[in-house]
Amino acid sequence: MRIALYQPDIAGNVGTILRTATCLGVQVDIIEPCGFPFSDRGLKRAGMDYAAAADVTRHADWTAFRDSHTSRLVLLTVQGGTPLPDARFAADDILLMGSESAGVPEYVHDAAGLRVRIPMRPGFRSLNVAVATGIALGEALRQSGGWPE
Question: Is residue 146 within 8 Å of 21, Cβ to Cβ?
């Protein structure tokens, strides 16, 4: 299981995701450009000392990321056709999260093997990307037997 972040905008969210991934033994891919310097204080503050232990691979762009992975992409999107409770995950899936401000472009949607949405009450637009990542990752690890011992 991996997490991929497409052109993230907010350092604090990336730090929180890195902390979560480190604690759960999950690798993270950062697809650049980021909307902040990767050495940002917010990243360090949110990730605390866990971020230094994170298994992170940075990719210059979408093409570099795609060239390095062949696993199924599971895009978390408010436009997803599959509600999270109905999604079926595999141990080698890559959970792909879009940028906070723009999501992902159509060609990234098209590359996803599965588009998943987290069900919410009517009238609400979206969850924070770090929270959504944690929710989806928890379900994916549960299904694939990937929780740490």
Answer: no
* Each residue's pLDDT tens digit, 69-121: 999 999 999 999 999 999 999 999 999 999 999 999 999 999 999 999 999 99
Domain boundaries, the chain: 2-144
User: Which amino acid is it at 33?
Assistant: P
Beta pairing partners, 41: none
Could you give the angle at which helices 11-24 and 129-144 cross, rounded to 10 degrees? 20
Q: Which amino acid is at 102?
A: A
Give the whole-angstrom CA distance, residue 118 versus residue 139.
11
The two three-digit tokens of residue 49, written as one number:
């000392």
Interatomic CA distance for residues 16 and 55, integer angstroms? 14
As given in the structure block, the two tokens for residue 78 are: 């408010």
Please report the pLDDT score of residue 46 as a whole number: 61
CATH class, domain 2-144, is alpha beta
